Amino acid sequence: MDAEAGTRIWLAPAKINLALHVTGRRADGYHLLESLAVFTRFGDRVEIELAESDRFSVSGKYAPAVPLDETNLVVKAREALRREAGPQGAAPVAIKLEKNLPVASGVGGGSSDAAAVLRGLVQTWQLDIGEAELARIGLSLGADVPMCLAAKPLIARGVGDELSAVLGFPALGLVLVNPGVAVSTPEVFKALASRDYEALPPLPGKLDFHSIRNWLEATRNDLESAARTIQPAITEALRALKKADAGFARMSGSGATCFGLFETGNVAKRAALDIRHRHPDWFVAATRSMEA
Questions:
Q1: What is the rounded distance in angstroms from the CA atom of residue 85 to the CA atom of residue 185?
Q2: What is the pTM of this model?
Q3: Burial 3-16 (b: 16+ CB within 10 A, else e)
């Protein structure tokens, strides 16, 4: 995302897989996917400023679960872009991450953080790097990073690197719920019953809340059944969303975060308050997706 006006802060939005079909597996072990993904106005936040030496710090509710060493995608993103820029074009920077999204929760938090850092550093270092080149660097960090660099409604295919924007996609009222459990993506893929499901159906010609909800009823998240077996609390989260009158509810990504669709932002806010009251220890956020 672009820096907010007059600041050095970039939003790292949550990535929500509205539908996710597993369509095959490559010889190298990577799974082939088709996914309709949107990005929310709620997420982590990244602040970058020039400094005398490189620094990386994390604040926010989920900071204790975030590593500060070279295993973090934020640090990997900084170093990957520095290699492209060369030492003369990449001065030391202080990066502050505000971690508002649960870790290992199926909403692309780490990948979105990395994408925000790449975008922020391109501006901070004043680099002449195009979108295609930035996506190539992002893909070297992880399959979800190019999607998070786009951060608009899209269909992702392949391993997540073949992206098609969905023009005219409306903002959706969403409630995100995580029952406080982390799910290992490799474990979920290992537990899949099949890896050769059919592709997504064509999107409806008219894109509004009702047509999208009806389309979603004909789609799946092929990872959901395996994830619910590993973490039964996911079933409870879906039940809570339906009890709060979500128009549609499903798990995002490899879990455990689930989303509910609501016709308006106000209805979503009321539903979030209700779920938070019933489950005060859960992560619950009312938000809206970004339009195309």
A1: 32
A2: 0.94
A3: beeeebbbbbbbbb
Domain end marker among 111, 131, 165: 165
Catalytic residue among 15, 76, 96, 99: 15
Q: What is the total residue count of the chain? A: 292
Can 61 be counted among the known catalytic residues?
no
pLDDT digits (tens, 9 = 90+) for 5-58: 445 999 999 999 999 999 999 888 888 999 999 999 999 999 999 999 999 999
15 is catalytic: yes
- Domain of 137? 9-165
**234 and 241 Cβ atoms separated by less than 8 Å:** no
Catalytic residue among 44, 76, 99, 144: 144
Regarding whether 65 and 20 lie in a shared domain, the answer is yes
Strand pairing report for 283-288 and 173-178:
antiparallel
SS3 at position 229: helix
Cβ atoms 99, 66 nearer than 8 A:
yes
Q: Read off the pLDDT of residues 189-239 as tens digits, 9 standing for 90 and up.
A: 999 988 888 999 999 999 999 999 999 999 999 999 999 999 999 999 999
Q: CA-CA distance, 36 to 156, in Å (whole number)?
A: 7
Residues 151, 177 within the same domain: no
Q: What SS3 state is found at 49?
A: strand
Residue 178 sits in the same domain as residue 41: no
Per the omega criterion (within 30 degrees of 0), is the bond before 182 cis? no
